[in-house]
Amino acid sequence: MHTRAEVYSPLQNTAVWLAAWLYHVESSDDTLDALADLGGTHSFNGASMAHLLYDVRSAADLESPGPAIRLILWGPGQAPRLRAGSPSMAALTQAGALVVRGVGANHVLVPEYLGPEVRWRWFEEQEPLPEPEWLSPGEADQVLSRATDQAAVLIEALGGTRKELPNPRLAVGTLADFYDTPGLPAGVTPRAAKLFARADRVAATIETVTDQLDDHSFDPQLFALWRHVRSARMAGVADAVVDYQREWAR
């Protein structure tokens, strides 16, 4: 199992860029460029990503309380917060989904990453979706930090990794830089940015141990972190989107 699929999704930054565009913080051109960096050529029903952006703006409820865009990530020990048996659940891939809040309905956008292109599918949900965790950035940061410390203690107690990299800090830093590419749009809250950075760092550390070192003796300790990394990303997106709404409403 490749670790990256469990701890990283380009949807984190995609969600924040879409919110920045919806609330007129970023231009259409800059948003489309960022989305291209996050997956290549995007298409929706055979049309370009610009067509999807237009439909998202038409459907989105930007004024009701709460995030107009939510990130859905899932994996071992963490079910996706979509309706069981729904078409959107059936279409879901490991990459996750975005939920755009509409008036009287939720719109679930499910991407499929196919090498240099991304194909989007759109599902309308009239029934309420399962409630998300609704962790605050501070709560998500504390949970992730505590789980990371616990995993480190366990690994140290078991004698450390069996293999070594010539420069493990450089390996972790290089991977953390990958997770952060292509960066975030303007106006992202410092809380969300800090949470994304911590999630990137933890994800890079997990990948360094399991994939770069090819040491799977600590999989139970490290895999337990996956859920907290995903939860941190979802909480950070929610905080960034709500803050965009707050600034837009002023």
- Structural category is alpha+beta
Query: Per the principal axes of the C-alpha atoms, what is the gross shape?
Result: globular
Number of strands: 6
Which value, in Å, is the CA radius of gyration?
18 Å
Alpha-carbon distance between the two ends: 47 Å
Strand content: 5-15%
| Biggest pleated sheet | 6 strands, mixed
Put simply, the count of helices is 10
Mean pLDDT: 85
Number of domains: 2
Which residues form runs of ≥5 with pLDDT under 50? none
Strand line-up of the largest beta sheet? 2-1-6-5-4-3
- H and E string: HHHEEHEHEEEHHHHH
Helicity range: 40-55%
Task: Offer a concise description of the structure.
By secondary structure, the chain is of the alpha+beta class. Helix content is 51%, strand content 13%.
In terms of topology, how is this protein built?
Blueprint: H1 4-7, H2 11-22, H3 28-37, E1 41-44, E2 47-48, H4 49-59, E3 69-72, H5 87-91, E4 97-101, E5 106-114, E6 117-125, H6 137-157, H7 168-180, H8 190-212, H9 219-223, H10 226-249
Parallel strand pairs: 1-6
Antiparallel strand pairs: 1-2, 3-4, 4-5, 5-6
Helix pairs in contact: 2-3, 2-10, 6-8, 6-10, 7-8, 8-10
